Amino acid sequence: MTDEYISKIEEITGRDQRKRVLEIVRIMRRHDFVRNFMKQQNPEEVRFALEELGPTFIKGGQILSTRPDLISPAFISEFKKLQDDVQIDSFESVSKTFREQTKKNISDVFDKFDEKPFASASIGQTHHAVLKNGTQVVVKVQHPKIKELVETDLTLFRQALKILKLAPEITVVDPKEILNQLQESLLNEINTEIEIKNGLEFYRLNNHDGIIEVPVVYEEYSTQKILVTSRMDGESIKKLAARSLSDDTTERKLQKKERTYIANALVKNFTKQVFVDNFFHADPHPGNILFYRLKQDDPRINELESTHEFEKKSGSIKASIKTEQKLPPYRLVYLDFGMMGRLSPLLAEGIANVIVALSKKDTQEISQAVLSICNRTGEIDEEDFTDQLGIFLTPYLKQGLGQIDFPVMLYDIIKLCRKNNLQVKPEVTLLIKAFGSLEGIVSQLDPDLSLMDVARPFAKEYFKRKFNWKNELDEDLITFGRAVKSTPQIPIKIEKLLDTLNQGRGRFTLRFKGQDTFIDRIETIVNRLIITIILASIILSSSLLVQGSMEHPAIYNIGVAGYMISFIVIIWMVASAIWHHFKK
């Protein structure tokens, strides 16, 4: 960032906010931003607007490109093209930020610090450095005044929307929900302390889980605007997946075996993150997963991993057997812990139930499982929802991972749930989105890996850990005891039922599918019919009064008033009908 840019930030946060608001309004009008975004049309035009509006809006668009629950697949694809166009901060500016945050000079902490960053984005820039003990690290430093810029632009953006006087027209997305989610994500993004905590926890849970590695977070040097982590080797896993297979048959088989192992390692680790840790990486796109091969002299080349554990207990004696195998000579590295997901044990169990239901391809069970992981926002016709979900899922259950377009599938599921007064819980949406990102990598590495091949081990292992035979047996015995106790009362209850029916006190309630909707429609028709009859009577009466009272002004005015009331009611009925037609 240049001094000119910093001055601009100070300016818009001080005396010239009105000018910035008008600038936002002008750009939004020129690109018809509000209409296009709310109706999810012309995504390219919306992207141009974000690029003109500056870093805050570019970053907002980048965040939205990871949220298929909020915007359509077409907008996601377009927003992924957003590129940070920011100039790098001077080394003096970086030094000042580091000193203000840590109360130390760069030379006090690092033996070497590259003055020129190797990467720069809208929030900050990243430098290579070496600690005093010789450890190679990566240092991420926030741009000056970025927090003020984000907070100010978000506030001014809300003011600009008010100036544009948004009409309550039909929209494809919920603008209020999107703006609130975007504000939360942006503020979390500029708070490096959140990423520090996430990085520490993810390292503890996943480092050296098979071939998985995680960079060390140096908490003692990291602050709200500074993040110091160990430097990791490797290149994007996308490059490995994109490489052509060898023409040599033997080499080709080895390459396929390697890619299958890597794909399964990713899936196995992600399963652990979700169902064991209940804490998962929510943005595992190819840029955040590195691949590298170990050198022959690297001591890690002889590392082992546990492949099977067997435990047997007899009285006070417990014996365990653990088998191990040598890890392959390559590693996978997870990066960037700004976007993480966390599940409650209850929600994790609900997700496991969905996976079990999917593996059984039972739409009734799938529907009940989905209902358990959604918030209800209104009245729900569960039978109708089950039918709709069954029709929607049928083609997906027959496809492999490589054939499924996850952004489209997730967006359609969200729309289906909203249509039925259901709101998918944010944690679940984040999980599906993360799995969709991982799916892209896995399907390239092993196209034959199917959705159900992944799902079954997920749920099987989870329920194997959670299932307690002793507790289940105790509950079954209690249930059986209650049933035995209630059995002698069955004849008495039947006799009471027959007495009730003989005395005419019995009552049957008959309901049919769509009953409430049908009754509402009948009620609407009846109400309109009654209003029509009343209007006809008023118009007829008014006509008689006007016709027969030309010499009596008071009576004549009553007739004219009747005409006016009838006209207003008719206009209201027509407008109401048009509104409800377009609202559906």
Automatic annotation (TrEMBL):
GO terms for molecular function: kinase activity. Keywords: Kinase, Membrane, Transferase, Transmembrane, Transmembrane helix. It holds the Pfam family ABC1. The keyword Transmembrane applies. InterPro entries: ABC1_dom, Kinase-like_dom_sf, UbiB_kinase. The chain crosses the membrane at residues 525-546, 558-579. Residues 81-368 form the ABC1 atypical kinase-like domain. Belongs to the protein kinase superfamily. ADCK protein kinase family. This is ABC1 family protein kinase. It comes from Ligilactobacillus ruminis DPC 6832.
